[in-house]
Predict the structure.
Amino acid sequence: MVEFRNVTKVYSNGHKALDNVSLSIDKGEFVFVVGASGAGKSTFLKLIMREEVPTSGSVNINGYELNTMKRRDIPYFRRTMGIVFQDFRLIPNMEVYDNVAFALRVTGAKERDIRKRVCYALSMVGLSSKIHSMPQELSGGEQQRVAIARALVNKADLIIADEPTGNIDPAMSVEIMELLNHINAAHGTTIVMVTHAHDLVKQYDHRVVVLRDGKLVVDSKDKDAVIPFLNENEHAAEAGYYEPPNEFEDVEAFIRNYGKSSMRPEADFYASTQVEIEEDITVSADDGAVIDSTNGESSPSENTEVKEDE
């Protein structure tokens, strides 16, 4: 699932961000990655997502050898994972439904399939009743749940969670952590979570990887081995992997670049209230949509229980 083999990364300014790191993460594991600011966590994530390539060594993710990957294959590779950001990265002018659906629309998925999968993903994170809400109408915890639903909607086997509790209060942090834990336990989804919330890390019996000055210094599920390193960095200043977005950031373009192919027309990406109906039939409740009798168009139903296809 995730394999680093003797990975070293040296940037053009001479900074060695990672130093001979080797580790393997198997399917179904939940792994915390911790360390002080500058320890190498950001570079670790960039290598997983193929934002960077190693200076030496090799990285294999979901069966893809990233060192030799061609540029045209990167979007297809990124579809095999879901990414949850510290700052949510929701599109402010789109409803909850369309924020999640956007991750599928950029891959050219059919709207009938999108409706099913979006409604199912939102039901998994407990937000079926918020399907038509705008991001600004949601709490921080609810916005992060939308981001998790977006990460799940592509049926990703691997979720990368970058400081997912960094912008929410402690009570909501516990809820988000419980949600990720449930997704891992119930669905076998592999989760790699970078965090500075060491109190949360201590509450779970998951594997912990500790980075220090680019070196892997601890890789263990043994709390006796891990806790001294967590305590050491308890009050260290932490920085998220991505800079917080400014008001001019094009979040739509960012997400589109993580899943693009020979995509549908640009107008389809920005449609936030209408969906196409390819066949002249009434969509059943199992499709997660109801027909609006006034114009024949479909929209997702708030009360429809949707089951994921086996």
Residues 2-265 form a domain with the Rossmann fold fold (CATH 3.40.50.300). Residues 170-187 form the longest helix (18 residues). Residues 237-248, 260-299, 301-307 have pLDDT under 50 and may be disordered.
